[in-house]
Amino acid sequence: MIDLVNISVGNAAGYALLGYMVVFFGLVLLMCVIFAMGKIMHKEKPAAAPAAAAPAAAAPAAAAPKAEPAPGSAGDFKLYNTDPRDAAMVMAIVADTLGKPLNELRFISIREVKEDEV
Amino acid sequence: MDILGVLQKLGLESGFASFFLTDGGWKNLVMIIIAFVLLYLGIVKKFEPLLLVGIAFGCLLTNLSYFVGQGANALYHPEIWAAFLDETSPAYHSYGAVMKQAGLLDFFYIGVKAGIYPSLIFMGVGAMTDFGPLLANPKSLLLGAAAQLGVFVAFFGAVLLGFTGPQAASIGIIGGADGPTAIFLTTKLAPELLGPIAIAAYSYMALIPLIQPPIMKAMTTDKMRKVKMVQTREVSKTEKIVFPMVVSTFVILLLPSTAPLIGCLMLGNLFRECGVTDRLSDTVQNALMNIITIFLATSVGATMVAQNFLNFNTIKIIVLGLIAFAISTVGGLCGGLVMYKTSGGQINPLIGSAGVSAVPMAARVSQDVGRKYNKNNYLLMHAMGPNVAGVIGSAIAAGFLLSVFG
Which of B164, B238, B247 lies nearest to residue A5, judging by beta carbons? Predict the structure, then answer.
């Protein structure tokens, strides 16, 4: 039986190594679980899409053709929890800070980051 | 009427006289000065003020009211808690015995001793944390694991310096850069060291912007620091809701001793993400967190009794704590360098240092250092992944140490 109170240097080194390995083992397994979870969730999305598309097709408003992007536009970008007005301001500020015209920049998405997330 | 006799009695009973007439009373005076220094650091220098101000004032109150052999009016009684841990004492593990003689801060301390406050703080941390960056890039968990290196190196160093196994484990966990975890583990394994360990943990967390950048610069090249990382994928709401359930189930089954910390962390996160408990999430993030912080800080400060604090062990703990923090940063950066190499230079190794769990300061340091070398580089969200992984990593490290030494 190892004396854990008056632990020897050799045992301490062994426990230190084992502990570090356990932390890695736990987090690597968790990483695999999260990867698997992500894969499953992303697989579900395309399957759900056709079902959602059916009622949408029935709606007359959905028949409206999508507008062509304006000349020079880089296409759509996504807004997450962001008001379009705020997004326009953010883009103007970024362009001003970088000293580049807005039409030379491409924004992929803008997401509001709450105070407690940073 | 014996006016002089009454005045003499009042004089002899006063704390001023106790400084000079009580055995070791001068030590209280030193602790009071230390409390003022900590208050200065908290208020003026803004070192973790929400905690340090409470800790310092708890220390001040204890050392103003408790002198060896004169505990009648004390707010905190170390001898009650020594009896609580003494298997031969009738007061062994008896909260009833504690309550019979307790002062105000003894009552507060029951919440620390029972492991309630650190767990509730973890619930607040969970409710405040967005695990989205971690879900978007699960490889960040490797950096959170790598950055626990300091925990085990400091544990080994503490054994070399003559600490017992449980004491060394409590000192090592300072390297996890996670105050509630350090308090939780120390209360279970080495309550006599709670004061210095809490002070070391919170002081070094406040000093992360000073401790980490020189190490980050020493371990990375200019080219590495300039790497711009690609945007992480958007994480769905469902993933965020399922995540706390998966982590709780998985980690608690793996290491049951992590249940109080991981359970509360993930419950708080579920309140935040599930979308139907906004009121609870708001309460946990604000009101509950603030109330518990007051109780936790003052009761931890109260344990800084002169007789327990003023000894050579405190200096050793402060030094080992700094080593633990530095080595954890080195571990995280080593992980970052490995990922930089294996990804063909796609991952900026600076995010590795955020694997020490101090949320969100360590991630902010990665962002600040990265921006110094490339002002268009925004590493914050990339660094938040390892940062929150560090919280889980330090809880697993604490769970391991608790199951071995508890």
Answer: B164
Domain total in chain B: 2
User: Is there a single domain that holds both residue B40 and residue B150?
Assistant: no
**Chain B residues 122-161 with CB within 8 Å of chain A:** 128-130, 134-135, 138-139, 141-142, 144-146, 148-149, 151-153, 155-156, 159-160
B184 shares contact with chain A (CB less than 8 Å): no
Low-confidence ranges of chain B (pLDDT < 50): none
pLDDT at A105 over 60: yes
Per-residue model confidence as pLDDT tens digits over B292-347: 999 999 998 999 988 888 889 999 999 999 999 999 999 999 999 999 999 999 99
Residues B75 and B193 in one domain: no
Cβ–Cβ below 8 Å for A6 and B151: no
Q: Which of B113, B142, B159 represents a domain boundary (last residue)?
A: B113
A13-19: average pLDDT: 96
Q: How many CB atoms lie within 10 A of CB B378?
A: 15
Report yes or no: B391 and B265 within 8 Å, Cβ to Cβ.
Answer: yes
Which of A27, A38, A41 lies closest to B389 in CB terms? A27
**Cβ pairs bridging A and B (under 8 Å):** 122
Please write the tens of the pLDDT for every residue from B41-70.
Answer: 999 988 888 888 999 999 999 999 888 777
Are B87 and B59 in the same domain? yes
Question: What value of ipTM does the predicted structure carry?
Answer: 0.85
Same-domain check for residues B139 and B95:
no
**A44 to chain B: nearest residue by CA?**
B238
Selected residue of B289, B366, B404 to mutate for chain A interface (largest A Cβ count, 10 A): B404
Q: Which range of residues forms the domain containing residue B358?
A: 125-289+308-405
**Long-range contact pairs involving B13-22 (C-beta distance under 8 Å, separation at least 24):** B15/B64, B15/B65, B15/B67, B18/B67, B18/B70, B22/B67, B22/B68, B22/B69, B22/B70
Both B162 and B268 in a single domain?
yes
